[in-house]
Amino acid sequence: MNGAEALIQTLCDSGVEVCFANPGTSEMQLVAAVDKQPRMRAILGLFEGVVSGAADGYGRMADKPAATILHLGPGLANAASNLHNARRGLSSIVNIVGDHATDHLKYDAPLTSDIESLAGPVSDWVRRSKSADDIGAAGAEAVEAALGYPGQIATLIVPADHAWTDGISSATPKHWPEAPQVADQAIADAAAALKKEGATALFLGGRALREEALEQAGRIAAVTGARLVCETFATRLQRGAGRVPVERLPYFGEMAADFLKEFARIVFVGATPPVSFFAYPGKPGWLSPESAELLQLAGPRDQALETLRKLADALDAPEKPAALQPSVTPPVGEGQLDAQSLGGVLASLMPEDSIICDEAVTASLGIYPMTQGAARHDWLMLTGGSIGFGLPIAIGAAVACPDRKVLALEADGSAMYTIQALWTMARENLDVTTILLNNGCYAILNVEFARVGVAAPGPKAMSLLDLTRPAIDWVAISEGMGVPAVRADTVEGFQQALQEALSVKGPRLIEAVIPPGL
Ligand SMILES: Cc1ncc(C[n+]2csc(CCOP(=O)(O)OP(=O)(O)O)c2C)c(N)n1
Fold first, then answer.
1. Cis omega (within 30 of 0) for bond into 38
2. Which of 113, 244, 200, 167 is nearest to 5 (CA)?
3. Cα angle for residues 404, 408, 410 (degrees, 5° grid)
4. Which residue among 414, 449, 466 is best mutated to probe the pocket of ligand 1, counting the most ligand atoms within 8 A of its Cβ?
5. How many beta carbons lie within 10 A of that of residue 81, not counting itself?
6. CB neighbours (10 Å) of residue 139?
7. Using omega within 30 degrees of 0 as the cis cutoff, is the peptide bond preceding 150 cis?
8. Per-residue model confidence (pLDDT) at position 442
9. DSSP code at position 490
C-alpha cells in the first residue's frame, strides 16, 4: 500500500465508514485510496462548509466520526464555521487535511499556509503525520481522539509525499475510549442537595438529553420534584410523545434569567451554567441567580447516563419517570401561513423518529413549542451560533440514518451560506425534506437592533438586513440543483406540500412564505 491507502484502511478498520470530501491536488492520493476501499463511502460537498456540517450531522446521529477530506489551509478555513459548531456541540469528526509534500514547503508555493494555526481553534486534537511510516498510527490516533466522549474534532494533516510513498502498512485500531465516570461521593453530595428544601432544577445538556438519560432524569424528578431544564441549543434532544419532557431555557438573556430566578439550587449534568449568548448594555450575562446553589455534578465530557442512573438509585427513585409527554396534535389553522401554524402542520404530519435539523432561527420560536407532543423525534440545534449549518447537517443525519425522515427547518438568510448542500442531497438521493422559511430578511437582527439600544436604524442599516432586493427564487435554486420544490404561502398549501414531500423517499424543498418578525 502507499501511505494514503494505509491511512484509509486504518480509518475503515477503526470504524469510519463515510468520507465527506472536497479535495484538491494535494489530496489526489487520498481520493484514489478511497476509490480502492470498498468499505468507505465517498460523498462530494461543493463547498467545505457543506463537508464539515455534513460530518457534524453524521457524528451527532451515528455517535462515531465520519472523515472529511479538505484541501490544505484554505479548504480547512472554508470548513471552519461548521467545525466550530461541531466542536461546540461535542460532535465527532476526523478531518484529513492535505498539505504540500514536505520538500515543497520551502518554496512557499501559493497554497502554502499555517494549517496548524487554522486547525487549532476548531479542533480538539491536531497532529501532522511525521513520516509515511507514521501515517497509519496517526490515523488510528485521530479516530481515538474523535471518539473522546461524547465526541471531539480531530484534525490530521497529511503531507502529499507521505500519502504517495509506497510500502506502507496500516495501523491497528485503538480501543474506543471510555467515558469518564463521576465519583460516587459527588453523586452522594448531589443526592443530599436534591433532598433539601427549595425549588431545584436539574439542568441537562449533551448526552443527558438522549431518551435513556432523560428516563433517569424523569425518575429523579419523580422523587424530588426537581424541574427538568435543558440548554437552549442542544446537540441532539430526543423528545416527543412518550418521552420525558424537558423545559428549554429561553434564548434571550433576560427571559432566561427570569426563568431561572426562582431556583434555590441548580444541578448540572452534561452542561455548565448557562450564560447569555451576547452581552447587551445593562442586561445580565450570567443567568443563574446569585443566591442559587450551583452544583456541577457532571460536565459535558462526563458520562451522563450512568451519572443520572446512579443519582436516581441513590435517591431511591421509582423505576419509572413520573411524567411522560402525552401525544398532542395542535389544531391546524387556515389562511396565511406563519411559524406557529407551520409548526402545527408539522406536528400533525411528521413521522415517528423524524430527525429535525433546526436552523429556523426566529421561526423556530413558533415551531418548536408546537411540536412538543408530536411523534417522537430527534431535534438537532445550532450549537455554535455560526449560521449555515442546517442544510449540511441534514445531509449527515440522512447518511447516518437512511431509514429515518430528515426535516431541515431552514431560514432563508442562513440557507444562503451553504445552499450547495441541496446538490449533495440530490446526488445522494437523501431522504431530506427542506422547509425553507422565507421571511425575506434577517429577522433576528431587526430584534437585536432594539436590544443593543439602536433606536431608529436608517434605510442604509435596514438594507443590510433585507433579502428582497432582489427577491430570491427558492424554487428555481432548488430545482437548479436537482431538488424538486414547491412554494406555499397558506396553511392549506403548506399542508398539501408537506404531505406530498413526506409520501416520497428522496429530497424535496418547500418554500414556506412567512411574515417577518417574531
Ligand atoms: C457565520 C455567521 N455569520 C453571521 C451571523 C450573524 N447572524 C445571526 S442571525 C443572522 C441572520 C439570520 O437570518 P435568517 O437565517 O433569515 O433567520 P431569521 O432571523 O430571518 O429568522 C445573521 C446574519 C452568524 N450568526 N453567523
1. no
2. 167
3. 180
4. 414
5. 22
6. 32
7. yes
8. 96
9. B
> E strand or H helix at 248, and its extent?
strand 247-248
The residue contributing the CA closest to ligand 1 atom 16 is 413
- Here the cell at position 108 is 512557499
Q: Is the pLDDT of residue 453 over 90?
A: no
CA angle 391, 397, 399 (to 5 degrees): 105
Which pTM does this prediction carry? 0.98
Task: Report the nearest-CA residue for atom 13 of ligand 1.
Answer: 442
C-alpha cell at 265: 439550587
Q: What is the pLDDT of residues 201-254, one digit of tens each?
A: 999 999 999 999 999 999 999 999 999 999 999 999 999 999 999 999 999 999
Task: List the residue whose alpha carbon is closest to atom 26 of ligand 1.
Answer: 386
CA 423–ligand 1 middle distance (angstroms): 22
DSSP for 64-114, written as a single string: SPEEEEE-HHHHHHHHHHHHHHHHHTT--EEEEEEE--GGGGGG--TT---
Region 389-404: mean pLDDT is 99
Residue 413 CA to ligand 1 center (angstroms) comes to 6
The grid coordinates of residue 65 equal 466520526
Output the nine-digit C-alpha cell for 516.
Answer: 417577518
Residues with CB under 6 A from ligand 1: 81, 361-363, 385-388, 411-414, 439, 441-445
Cell match 419517570: residue?
321
Are the CB atoms for 126 and 99 separated by under 8 Å?
no
Q: Would you state the cell numbers that stand for residue 92, as one nine-digit string?
A: 465527532
